[in-house]
Write a structure and sequence with these properties.
The structure is a homodimer of 403-residue chains. Chain A is α+β, with helices and mostly antiparallel strands and 403 residues long. Helices cover 32% and strands 27% of the residues of chain A. Chain A has 2 domains: 268 residues, 4-Layer Sandwich (L-amino peptidase D-ALA esterase/amidase); 123 residues, Roll (Ubiquitin-like (UB roll)). Chains A and B meet through helix 8, helix 9, strand 13 and helix 11 of A and helix 8, helix 9, strand 13 and helix 11 of B.
């Protein structure tokens, strides 16, 4: 498997574009993105579990009932959520795209991200559609920019891999960066691949993968109303169609996981106001579920997040978060380590503090990527969760987001 | 019922004291508190549900097996948690107090609060015990100071009320102010009363009350390892002993609730770094449990908390938090209001935005006490939760708490 350029346009038959159409006031910010497949693609999505669901998700779910899509239209700057006429707006946005691309109306995935509860004006989208479609090309980065909200970094990746001697490609883009605490589905992530795969196996691959990837990311504990992960597989690589589990499916899962883990880390590291990517690795849990509970609980703890911002080896907060995680653990068996590119330090053994150099700990925790490792000593369950530190800037960004 | 002076010394037979003994480096900060009842008192506690429990809680639980206590000893500056010899330290602390006061060893409630995982040196406590005991008096405020950590305000209250023509008193002190997300029991709260009541009814009163009070407070979503609510009832008011439900028990519950709600509001408003007390009132829920889920979810949302810091009427975040609360709600029936001493404003009706004056909203949200009200329009369930805004100072305080 190789990491390659091209993002969501790396796979055969996919083009994309992103423009500023006028939803945002700032003209230097793109606010409309389009992804297009030359041929209809097997497609599926996973959605937020928030009972308050953005209108675009409801429309997309309907459109994907037949498991086929050919384009994604997505705006930023307005979430089209909690609006009385949200469904109409999402349907109309979708129609603009299907008309302009001459594809079937229900083959469009529609998404919106931004502020909740403000009416989305369709005029700029209508007016921008011609430029958006005519400019379609190898423009993954433009599309990635078009879906950004408070993200500070563009998030895209692609990999090539082989299935039965045939080269296949898969790529993805994502937006973070606040209101992120996935539950069953999350964030805005679009993945494209030219793999030939049945819609059933595609859904299976996505649903399995997100349990260990996007559902293990938390920025701020808030599960968004709007976010989803969509994948389109147009089959243009020409591999023998994947219709069941086996070596080919495993290869595809591996490539998919490379893309999703990369995007998870990017989303977590670019959390609102974040200065550090935090990774919590839990091993030795009674079950995988227990490991997941502990790792997510640590990653979500405001106190732990603030301590990491201050490069403070306050491991008591790690143990505290493990203790209230709901996992079945024996606190007297827990060892805790902090690690980064500067080394690894053991700070807690069998649930009690050990002497360690505060200076070394500070050096390790001053790096931009921190791993906190908990060895529970109680079984074989393992899990990893990703998050970010809690900073002044998180408060600043969210203290007055709407203005 | 009248609010009176005296705090935990208001009830007959109770004295208290608080001193600086040397656990904290800062000599101007008290770090040891004592509460004493002239006679043994019916007593019970509720404890954190965190699996990582502070050693003092384990010792207190053992001491309260017989339902009797006569004193509380509590230090701040060190939580005596996650230490290999924590139980020994807590037992020894307790013995210092029972020896000095000539009371039974197991009639002492022992508590500690502060940093986790650092060994608690008993020497300053031993050396301070004489000063602490000889200075016992009408010193509720000194004791309240002795249990403070990052609290900025002293938290004490007392009320007098009548039971069957007999005047009774109840008072309490509390400490907040971070790692606060009670679950079954929480924080450090000591309540004293001279009411004559059986230990069974006392436990019933406390366990019932905390469900609607301390368990509805959240500062930062972190459930502490150390916190508890203890009550001592020494019977010195001389009322006819309360041994069953009825008018007398109801009167006592009402007085207890006045004390606990007051302390909840104080704890929430003095959350780490907080500039505002937030109160979330939910009405019209299918059940009380649904109302509780919604109100706690809103109060815990980092995004909502940051918006309140910025006086930003971002009601979409309120709806979002209701949506992921796990409560059984119909989002299309929800009305949202913001209120303070400056007035009330309706910002959302039937789950969609309504036109409102941003200027008026800003004025309302700039007050130090904010109420966000959700009318769910779906039943009779009601609940109130308390919290605080998320500010730069929360991050500052917790970015380097240990130094």
């Amino acid at each position: 498997m190789n990491i390659i350029d091209g993002g969501i346009c790396a796979a055969e038959g996919f083009t994309a574009n992103g423009i500023h159409c006028g939803i945002r006031k700032n003209k230097s910010k793109k606010d409309l993105a389009l992804i297009y497949s030359e041929v209809p693609a097997a497609s599926c999505s996973v959605y937020t579990t928030n009972l308050v669901k953005g209108a675009p998700l409801i429309v997309t779910k309907k459109h994907l009932e037949n498991g086929v899509a050919q384009a994604v239209i997505c705006n930023s700057g307005n979430a089209n959520t909690c609006n009385a006429d949200g469904i109409f707006i999402a349907e109309t946005m979708s129609e603009y795209a299907s008309d302009a691309l001459s594809i079937k109306a229900d083959d469009v995935i529609v998404a919106s991200t931004g502020v909740i509860g403000q009416k989305l004006d369709l005029t700029p989208i209508k007016n921008g559609m011609k430029e958006l479609c005519s400019g379609l090309g190898n423009k993954s980065a433009d599309a990635a920019e078009g879906i950004m909200t408070t993200d500070t970094a563009l998030k895209e990746i692609a990999v090539s891999f082989e299935i039965g001697g045939t080269t296949c490609k898969i790529g993805g883009i994502a937006k973070g960066s606040g209101m992120i605490h996935p539950n069953m589905a999350t964030m805005l992530v679009f993945i494209t691949t030219d793999v030939n795969i049945s819609r059933e196996m595609l859904q299976k691959a996505l649903s399995t993968d997100i349990q260990k990837t996007f559902n293990m990311v938390s920025i701020d504990g808030d599960t968004s109303t709007n976010d989803m992960v969509s994948i389109m597989a147009n089959g243009m690589a020409g591999n023998k169609k994947i219709t069941e589990e086996g070596a080919d499916f495993a290869e595809f899962m591996k490539a998919l996981n490379t893309v999703t883990v990369y995007l998870c880390r990017k989303i977590a590291g670019d959390g609102e106001g974040a200065t550090k990517l935090l990774e919590c690795v839990v091993t030795g849990a009674k079950t995988e579920q227990d490991a997941k509970k502990v790792s997510k609980s640590v990653i979500c703890s405001s106190l732990f997040k603030a301590a990491m911002f201050g490069a403070d080896a306050n491991w008591g907060r790690v143990l505290c978060a493990a203790g209230y995680s709901g996992a079945d653990i024996d606190v007297n068996k827990i060892d805790v380590y902090f690690a980064s590119s500067k080394g690894t330090i053991n700070v807690c053994k069998d649930g009690a503090g050990v002497d360690f150099s505060e200076e070394t700990a500070k050096e390790i925790l001053s790096e931009p990527e921190i791993i906190v490792k908990l060895e529970l000593g109680d079984g074989q369950g393992e899990a990893t969760a990703w998050g970010c530190d809690l900073t002044y800037d998180y408060v600043k960004i969210n203290g007055d987001y709407r203005t």
